[in-house]
Each structure stands twice: as C-alpha cells, then as structure tokens.
Amino acid sequence: MIAFGKQRKQDTVVLVLRDAPEIAGELRRALATASDAERPGLERALALAGEAEAVPDAELRARWVRQRLAAAGYDGPVDSVAAIKALRQAEPGLSLLQAATYAREAAGA
Questions:
Q1: For residues 89 and 72, is the Cβ–Cβ distance under 8 A?
Q2: Run of H or E residues at 6
Q3: pLDDT of the residue at 9
Q4: Which DSSP symbol is given to 28?
C-alpha cells in the first residue's frame, strides 16, 4: 500500500507502507492452530504474503506511478514529458523533481 506523508513543509513524498510482515505474522499464528483442512490454504496465503514482502520499494513506487497515469488516462511512455505532466496533474503535491524521479524509476522497473 502506498500513501502520502509530509517530510518537510514543502516536500511531499511517496511513502511505501508494507503490511505484509504483520499479515504474515497473523497467518503464522493461524497456521499454528489450524486444522488439517485449513493448512493448505493458510500455507499458500503465507507464501503469497512472503512474496509481497520481498517486492522492492522501487517496484511498488513504479506500480503506483503506472496506476496514477492509467487513472489519469495516460498510456504513453512513463518517463516522457507528457507522463510527468499527467502525474503532476493527478498528484498536485508532487514537485517537478519528484515526478521526474518517480517516472524515471518507473521506466527502469
């Protein structure tokens, strides 16, 4: 999950929030007391939570950029001037530097 937070008065940044470790802990606790019928599903869910936890922050930010651009109706190259403009229009709190950085990062992911 991704959310916005204030780092400094003028700088809005995209923060990557990860719930996967907490979810994996809950699944491990449930697995400890699970019946034989519940075990396969809980084991698969635990494996999926582990995969989600392993995704790098840069990839999550790249997904966020692509999602924001798609929601804005933009479907061209993610690191173009038009993409940066669309991203800043979709997220007015982003500075030009932040939008360009995120777009470049998304293009490389």
A1: yes
A2: strand 2-6
A3: 39
A4: H
Q: Where are the beta strands (DSSP E) in the chain?
A: 2-6, 12-16
Tens digit of each residue's pLDDT (9 = 90 or more) over 5-33? 444 434 445 555 678 888 889 999 999 99
DSSP conformation letters of 83-95: HHHHHHHHSTT--
- CA gap 20, 22 in Å, rounded: 5
Percent of the chain with pLDDT over 70: 84
Written as six digits, the tokens of 69 are 């651009």
pTM exceeds 0.85: no
- Among residues 97, 78, 99, 91, which one has the least CA distance to residue 3? 91
